[in-house]
């Protein structure tokens, strides 16, 4: 059974003494970096408050039904009518692209993702089937019910630049962090050590409905039931740990910061196979990969 690394709650990158959000509904981890939790997943807003139209970027696009919340959060934080310069995707699982099609169209915004993630975003391929046998919690057991079919934003879809730069975000770079999905990426700003990691690792036991509800901070590998390549996931965590980040916003759970983040991330990286990888499971025995086409199914 996969394990977790407990983390001191004081290591939260947002205010550990309060769960109160700003007026716009977000929690800030830096002056121009904030997140909002939408049911079971986080979306990230990059850009200073009052940045205006095209002065900010959205990372990931929430769960189905969250369009109004995301739109109103953006209006309050960045100004009336403020559309993003781009929507960046860490990956295309249903809880990260729930309202992507609607928002991209309404905002006429370009969408950027890794080349290996494109088939899930242009309507041409479905994700591998979730594995409910791993994790043991309610969220894992019901995972066969989660949507795996692709969205289609092909008219606005762009591949992230090969040089690692991030369009519309000076000072940020994207890092390929596969494992949870084949084209998963994380975003890194070296100047202040900020990481937006999607589901490369998370800070809650996403398999457990109780843990999702309570959000007690602890470091985990990627959510078990949707991770399709465990050796790649291990290398991705080690790549991120080597950056020695100051703060990290994950797709699930509260953001963490400081020495406690680095301690926990180093421990996860050094002992990933014991801590994060389930003892058995569909993708433990047979990883699904882009190279042989097993990561892609007919929609």
From TrEMBL:
Domain of life according to the entry: Bacteria
Region (Disordered): 1-25
Domain Metallo-beta-lactamase, chain residue ranges per copy: 40-252
Basic and acidic residues compositional bias, start-end: 9-25
Key words, A-Z: Hydrolase
Any GO molecular function: hydrolase activity
PANTHER family, sorted: METALLO-BETA-LACTAMASE DOMAIN-CONTAINING, METALLO-BETA-LACTAMASE DOMAIN-CONTAINING PROTEIN
Protein's recorded name: MBL fold metallo-hydrolase
Lineage, top ranks: Bacteria, Pseudomonadati, Pseudomonadota, Alphaproteobacteria, Hyphomicrobiales
């Amino acid at each position: 059974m996969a394990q977790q690394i407990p983390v001191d709650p004081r290591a939260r990158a947002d205010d550990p003494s309060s769960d109160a959000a700003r007026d716009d509904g977000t929690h800030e981890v830096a002056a121009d970096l904030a997140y909002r939790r939408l049911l079971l997943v986080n979306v990230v807003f990059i850009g200073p408050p009052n940045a205006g139209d095209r002065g900010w970027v959205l990372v990931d696009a929430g769960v189905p039904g969250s369009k109004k919340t995301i739109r109103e959060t953006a209006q309050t934080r960045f100004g009336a009518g403020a559309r993003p310069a781009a929507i960046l995707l860490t990956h295309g699982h249903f809880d990260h692209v729930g309202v992507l099609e609607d928002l991209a169209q309404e905002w006429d915004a370009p969408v950027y993702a890794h080349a290996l993630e494109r088939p899930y975003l242009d309507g041409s391929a479905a994700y591998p089937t979730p594995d409910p046998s791993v994790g043991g919690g309610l969220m894992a057991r019901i995972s066969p019910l989660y949507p795996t079919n692709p969205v289609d934003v092909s008219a606005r879809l762009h591949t992230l630049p090969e040089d690692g730069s991030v369009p519309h975000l000076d000072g940020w770079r994207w890092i390929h962090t596969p494992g949870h999905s084949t084209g998963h990426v994380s975003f890194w700003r070296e100047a202040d050590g900020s990481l937006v990691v999607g589901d490369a690792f998370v800070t809650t036991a996403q398999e457990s409905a109780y843990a999702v509800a309570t959000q007690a901070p602890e470091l985990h590998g990627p959510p078990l039931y949707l991770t399709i390549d465990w050796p790649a996931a291990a290398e991705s965590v080690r790549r991120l740990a080597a950056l020695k980040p100051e703060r990290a916003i994950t797709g699930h759970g509260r953001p963490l910061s400081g020495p406690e983040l680095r301690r926990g991330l180093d421990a996860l990286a050094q002992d990933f196979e014991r801590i994060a990888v389930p003892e058995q499971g569909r993708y433990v025995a047979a990883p699904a990969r882009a190279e042989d086409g097993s990561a892609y199914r007919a929609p």
